[in-house]
From TrEMBL:
<dbReference type="InterPro" id="IPR058532">
    <property type="entry name" value="YjbR/MT2646/Rv2570-like"/>
</dbReference>
<dbReference type="Pfam" id="PF04237">
    <property type="entry name" value="YjbR"/>
</dbReference>
<dbReference type="InterPro" id="IPR007351">
    <property type="entry name" value="YjbR"/>
</dbReference>
<dbReference type="InterPro" id="IPR038056">
    <property type="entry name" value="YjbR-like_sf"/>
</dbReference>
<protein>
    <submittedName>
        <fullName>MmcQ-like protein</fullName>
    </submittedName>
</protein>
Length: 119
């Protein structure tokens, strides 16, 4: 997956905005102001921090050592750093991004979640 494809994937979800709260190089993808993906699209190798269910986070790290590691500068229990261009199938990366988005949406207040469901 290329940086352009990763950016397009993150922006394809409902109510997502790209923000640069830390520096001009670090893209923060947020749904209704809540972070679900953090990446430097110019970095090599390309990595992205994604929210993850704690049990799944540990399992994924064990299944993909070196490619999925505890979240860099994040809560290690709830975030993984995923090496996007390091040999992981694009399908898995897409699923992990979608899971991160879904976890953040699930934590939103009910009224905001309902607004996301409207076309």
């Amino acid at each position: 997956m290329t940086p352009k494809e990763l950016r397009a994937l993150c922006l394809s979800f409902n109510a997502v905005a790209e923000d640069f709260p830390f520096n001009p190089e670090t893209s923060a993808f947020k749904v209704l102001g809540k972070l679900f993906a953090l990446t430097n699209l110019d970095a090599r190798p390309l990595t992205v921090n994604l929210k993850c269910d704690p049990e799944d986070a540990v399992r994924l790290r064990e299944e993909h050592p070196g490619l999925i590691v505890p979240g860099y500068h994040m809560n290690k229990r709830h975030w993984n750093t995923v090496t996007v261009a390091g040999g992981l199938p694009d399908r898995l990366v897409r699923e992990l991004v979608e899971d991160s988005y879904d976890l953040v949406v699930a934590g939103l207040p009910r009224a905001e979640r309902l607004r996301l469901d409207r076309p």
